[in-house]
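Input record (one chain):
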Amino acid sequence: MNKDEESITYRRSDIISILRDLNEIVVSLDRIGSEFEGLSGDDEYNRLVEEFLTEWKVFKKLSRARTLLQDAFSYDLGPDDMCELEREFQDLEYWSRNSTRPRNDGSST
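The corresponding structure, as predicted from the sequence alone:
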């Protein structure tokens, strides 16, 4: 079987927890965006997004989801001194002060 076709099993409760958090985040950000038309400008929009990210502990929830999902993968190093996920992620773009916008269209593979 091709490695891309292998199945990985997760506990149902973990997947439901991740999906609940992701749904909460996506729907809330969509609602904030929908409210943007009635807001007094970018400053208020930015304040609402920042408040949401902080008060709703979005970063903690995303980090937890990543941890739960990556635990199913091997951390063993290959001949290239990388684990499986390092190899899969080596071409990812990350925000930096010098690179504030993605080079691609933002869609996943």
